[in-house]
Amino acid sequence: MNTLTSLLLAAMLAASLAGPAGAQQKSDPDNPEANATWQQVRAAMFKDREITTPAEAVLSLDAPERAQDAAIVPISIRTHVEQRPERYIERVYLMIDNNPSPVGAVFHFTPASGRADIETRVRVDAYTHVRAIAEMNTGELFMATRFVKASGGCSAPPGKDMQSAMANLGKMRFRVEGELEPGKPAQAQLMISHPNNSGLVMDQLTRMYTPAYFVRRIQVSYAGQPVLSADVDFSISENPNFRFYFVPSGEGELKAEVIDTNDLRFETVVKVDAGG
User: In whole angstroms, what is the distance from residue 172 CA to residue 264 CA?
Assistant: First the structure.
């Protein structure tokens, strides 16, 4: 059982204990601690561990106050801690309190990541606090929150019909951005063609729900060394898109492997030459 699966089971149980759906979707924009689902999920995932907030010295979270499209909400997690072997951000949890599955993703980093920043796009099902929780390799926890006004993102119809989506299934665009300097963090972008069905969308012709089918695992390495891995859920938008960092040194391959809920595997590689 992977990290996200374990967390999701705990989070789903916690959410069910928080009360009926209507109660779960009540959030106080000015009080991130007031949400019943968050309190249950926090207890299930982190027990009585201290979570430092606000956490500007460690990380910040950017998200629109009011989303233009609830099915494609841009999220940017910025970190302010150098990834050094003695102290670095080991995990970042992305949580969306009022989504059907509150744990949207768990990103795993190493010192070779350079920076533990991540950008992606998510679905938001109801007005909610979005949380980024950084876990240091020392066990410390830090949290940044944003209140996002959006609704219906998890049940919104897909942007493409299923036939077109499946025709391009698993195709990826992988690129490195900007000029590379050996030993300095460089940004990369991974774009994955995948319907990422939530299982909550009703086909208006058949009146049946489209089965859940989404990317569940991403692994990125550079020159054979792990840079980023992520356990992700259907809260990530259709055609998942991620920006992250790695530290280039000379020539090497940046490799991405993607696994979906049908256990299909897709790979892509980009050759990197940082000179030096």
Answer: 14
End-to-end CA distance of the chain: give it in Å, rounded. Answer: 42
Higher pLDDT, 203 or 131: 131
The answer on pLDDT for 62 being more than 70 is yes
Crossing angle of helices 3-17 and 36-46, rounded to 10°: 140
Nearest alpha-carbon partner for 58 in 132, 134, 118, 139: 134
| Coil, helix or strand at residue 113 | helix
Please give the C-alpha separations between residue 250 and each of 176, 224, 274, in angstroms, as whole numbers: 14, 14, 5
CA distance 148 to 208: 30
Cα separation, 155 vs 143, whole angstroms: 28
Taking each continuous run of H as one helix and of E as one strand, the counts in the chain are 4, 15
**Looking at residue 25, what is its pLDDT?**
53
Looking at residue 77, its amino acid is I
34-56 in b/e burial notation, b at 16+ Cβ within 10 A? ebbbbebbbebbeeeeeeebebe
pLDDT for 97:
96
Alpha carbon distance 227, 88 (integer Å)? 13
- Name the burial class of residue 95, with classes exposed (0-12), middle (13-18) and buried (19+) by CB atoms within 10 angstroms of its CB: buried
Q: What is the pLDDT of residues 108-162, one digit of tens each?
A: 999 999 999 999 999 999 999 999 999 999 999 999 999 999 999 999 988 878 8
Which residue in 261, 70, 241, 67 sits closest to 155, CA to CA? 70
